[in-house]
């Protein structure tokens, strides 16, 4: 990696120097030199042109001193507290407030009233700070699984991340989810083991759990499957936690002052030298497994200098082959500054990260973006917020420069928009700026777009790759209590849909009620609460409903003639073919194949037939839920010269589907959740018995100190109100997290029960 970095630096230097080979008179050179001194090279194009001839590009230094990082973790691992400390030490805020707002203020990054009250982070607030001359953009992400779309959006635009782990709780289910997302978006990361001051803190246990220390003599239980090792050793633990030893620089750090702002550097305590030597060797061994340059020095038994080790860790981290593990206690103000140094030393700057765009003019061909301000503008709208002054759109600029007053083009809609105001965000406060270049995260006002839209300067038609948006798993019927507040109610729903792709709004075709769908009970509760808080609309909410699906299990033929003769033009359309299940693992959920040879059905009616089948598949005949994993093949048909129409063929398709659906042996699919429980061992039997009663399948049972960690797959329909049940079974000591796993077929008795309930409700109408 370094060879490449140095190589690229050498290349860019040679490239810019080679332009000056033509002889230049000393007078011109002197004028150019004076001109450079007198004018700012950032904003003057003329000056930029001259400096380009003379030196490296104007942006090189500012981009190398830029880091875009996210802080992600399991709920309650302390990441908002960590962000708060980072902002304090970097001078962005001048006093520290705790997350749960005991002082009535709440943490800076939790800017929504609801967040300060519940002590959880819901939206990813973006902020920036400077540390040792570097600019660091930080995105604080939610830790609750119901808000993973926020985490995914944040990771999509980051160059690096800090994964916060709790030294007591260890690697928990949400840590694994976040880690999986980081792998999907190829984000290099550091780990920070927090809360070393807590009772039962054991960083080495967490390290082993993380799949770290993969040596032949130490087969650790791997949860995150990382190559990683500690770059620090704590001095004392729990109440005795005093400071940290840096294994790279071989120095001990102590944190003094009322908020840990004074760092005292000392030699390593004598009694810890043996442990430190062993841990440093472990670190070197692990890094040399993934870095050839360090491996050569290590195998030759040569002494390894601080700079050699630091460079090797940086290369391996940026190549996503290694995760350096830092330690500390954000709450007790220990270990945050060395973590910030680690962000600068080991995480990449924007040009070191490969970003791809899809060229819409060449059938979505992948294009590597240069990541420099010299190219055409390419920016991604990764987050929307409704602010006091209209819609606020967060942009990550991947290439080029954006200036206030410029015209930019939304590639997804084709609209040309002027940038009225450009700001840099600090949680919910803002600072006006005139321009921003590649690698920076900024916000613009008054730009109408959806989350995930790409903006360019119009010279290219690139879009950034689409984000992975999970299907909602739960629905609620909702309506405003007062008829007068209907306008505000729909305004709220429209805004939330734009902000959050996993939040869907629909109408129940039978009851005409508004249905909201999302990623779980908490997700929907938060939105109902936000409608009340932010729009002053009281809403009544129905019983949560699970989003079942239907599918077919075998092939079935159809041959249907729709014929209707009334006065004037009649209706005539015949469709023949078959429906069959799509094989498992396919990316599409509905396929339509026109296999007709010739013109038995005129080609202008084919889209109407497809539309009819799609409409019919929206509501299966078992329980009225959408049918998926379905392939429809149209093999034959007939048309009438006068009576055939689009409507006739659409109706023929709908009736044909209903006719053959039962013969295809349909089954009901229900959402199955991956549930991870952590309960004291004495309650293990009761909890496992309850999981079986809920038709759950236990797939893992591990021991973690005095606790049992049970992993199970449980139907979501059987998980309503589970938190109350778990609390009563475990005297309030148990905890669980769940996330969507898949839709899978229900058992025969459950299917009968669901079908009968559906028929009874239809009959009652």
TrEMBL record:
InterPro entries linked to this entry: EFG_II, EFG_III, EFG_III/V, EFG_IV, EFG_V, EFG_V-like, EFTu-like_2, G_TR_CS
SMART domains xref list: EFG_C, EFG_IV
Keyword Mitochondrion listed: yes
Pathway(s) per entry: Protein biosynthesis; polypeptide chain elongation
Domain of life: Eukaryota
The entry's keywords: Elongation factor, GTP-binding, Mitochondrion, Nucleotide-binding, Protein biosynthesis
Tr-type G domain location: 64-352
Signal peptide (UniProt feature, chain positions): none
Binding residues annotated for GTP, in chain numbering: 73-80, 140-144, 194-197
Subcellular location: Mitochondrion
Similarity comment: family membership: Belongs to the GTP-binding elongation factor family. EF-G/EF-2 subfamily. Belongs to the TRAFAC class translation factor GTPase superfamily. Classic translation factor GTPase family. EF-G/EF-2 subfamily.
Function: Mitochondrial GTPase that catalyzes the GTP-dependent ribosomal translocation step during translation elongation. During this step, the ribosome changes from the pre-translocational (PRE) to the post-translocational (POST) state as the newly formed A-site-bound peptidyl-tRNA and P-site-bound deacylated tRNA move to the P and E sites, respectively. Catalyzes the coordinated movement of the two tRNA molecules, the mRNA and conformational changes in the ribosome.
Name of the protein described by the UniProt record: Elongation factor G, mitochondrial
């Amino acid at each position: 990696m370094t060879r490449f970095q140095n190589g690229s630096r050498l290349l860019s230097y040679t490239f810019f120097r080679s332009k000056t080979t033509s002889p230049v008179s000393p007078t011109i050179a002197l004028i150019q030199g004076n001109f450079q001194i007198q004018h700012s090279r950032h904003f003057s194009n003329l000056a930029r042109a001259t400096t380009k001839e003379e030196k490296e590009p104007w942006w090189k230094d500012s981009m190398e001193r830029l880091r875009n990082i996210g802080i992600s973790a399991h709920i309650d691992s302390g990441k908002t507290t960590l962000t708060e400390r980072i902002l304090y030490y970097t001078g962005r805020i001048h006093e520290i407030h705790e997350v749960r707002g005991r002082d009535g203020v709440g943490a800076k990054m939790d800017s929504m009233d609801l967040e300060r009250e519940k002590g959880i982070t819901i939206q990813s607030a973006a902020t920036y700070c400077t540390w040792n001359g570097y600019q660091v953009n930080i995105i604080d992400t939610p830790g609750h699984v119901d808000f993973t779309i926020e985490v995914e959006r944040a990771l999509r635009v980051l160059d690096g991340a800090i994964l916060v782990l709790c030294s007591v709780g260890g690697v928990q289910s949400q840590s694994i989810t976040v880690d999986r997302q980081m792998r999907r978006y190829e984000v290099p990361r550091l780990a920070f083991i927090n809360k070393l001051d807590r009772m039962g803190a054991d960083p080495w246990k967490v390290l082993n759990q993380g799949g770290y220390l993969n040596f032949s003599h130490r087969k650790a239980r791997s949860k995150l499957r990382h190559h990683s090792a500690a770059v620090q050793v704590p001095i004392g633990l729990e109440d005795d936690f005093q400071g940290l030893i840096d294994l790279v620089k071989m120095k001990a750090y102590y944190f003094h002052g009322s908020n840990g702002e004074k760092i005292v550097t000392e030699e390593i305590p004598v009694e810890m030298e043996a442990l430190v030597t062993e841990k440093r060797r472990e670190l070197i061994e692990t890094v040399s497994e993934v870095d050839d340059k360090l491996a050569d020095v290590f195998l030759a038994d040569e002494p390894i200098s601080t700079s050699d080790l630091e460079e090797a860790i940086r290369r391996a981290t940026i190549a996503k082959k290694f995760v350096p593990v830092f330690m500390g206690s954000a709450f007790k103000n220990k270990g945050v500054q060395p973590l910030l140094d680690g962000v600068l030393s080991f995480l990449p700057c924007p040009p070191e990260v490969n970003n791809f765009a899809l060229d819409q003019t060449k059938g979505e061909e992948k294009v590597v973006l240069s990541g420099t301000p010299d190219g055409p503008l390419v920016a991604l709208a990764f987050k929307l917020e409704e602010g006091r002054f209209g819609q606020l759109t967060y942009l990550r600029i991947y290439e080029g420069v954006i200036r206030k007053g410029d015209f930019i083009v939304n590639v997804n809609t084709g609209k040309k928009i002027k940038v009225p105001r450009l700001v840099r965000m600090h949680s919910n406060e803002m600072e006006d700026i005139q321009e921003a270049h590649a690698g920076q995260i900024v916000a613009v006002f008054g730009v109408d777009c959806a989350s995930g839209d790409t903006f360019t300067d119009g010279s290219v038609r690139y879009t950034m790759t689409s984000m992975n948006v999970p299907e909602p798993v739960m629905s609620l019927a909702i309506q405003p209590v007062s008829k007068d507040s209907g306008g505000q109610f729909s305004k709220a729903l429209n805004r939330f849909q734009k902000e959050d792709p996993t939040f869907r709004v629909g109408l129940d075709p039978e009851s005409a009620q508004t249905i909201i769908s999302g990623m779980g009970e908490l997700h929907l509760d938060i939105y109902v609460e936000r409608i009340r808080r932010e729009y002053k609309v009281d809403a009544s909410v129905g019983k949560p409903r699970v989003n079942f699906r239907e599918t077919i299990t075998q092939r079935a033929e159809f041959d249907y003639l729709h014929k209707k003769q009334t006065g004037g033009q009649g209706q005539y359309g015949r469709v023949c073919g078959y429906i069959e299940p799509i094989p498992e693992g396919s990316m599409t959920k509905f396929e339509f194949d026109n296999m007709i040879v010739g013109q038995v059905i005129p080609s202008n009616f084919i889209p109407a037939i497809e539309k009819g089948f799609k409409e019919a598949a929206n509501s299966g005949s078992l329980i009225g839920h959408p049918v998926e994993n379905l392939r429809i093949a149209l093999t034959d048909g007939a048309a009438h010269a006068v009576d055939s129409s689009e409507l006739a063929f659409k109706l023929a398709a709908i009736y044909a589907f209903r006719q053959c659906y039962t013969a295809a042996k349909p089954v009901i699919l229900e959402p199955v959740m991956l549930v991870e429980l952590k309960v004291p061992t004495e309650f293990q039997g009761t909890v496992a018995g309850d999981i079986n009663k809920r038709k759950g399948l236990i797939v893992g049972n591990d021991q973690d100190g005095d606790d049992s960690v049970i992993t199970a797959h449980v139907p979501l329909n059987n998980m309503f109100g589970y938190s109350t049940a778990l609390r009563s079974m475990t005297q309030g000591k148990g905890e669980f997290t769940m996330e969507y796993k898949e839709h899978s077929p229900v058992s025969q008795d459950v299917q009968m029960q669901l079908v009968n309930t559906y028929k009874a409700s239809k009959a009652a109408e």
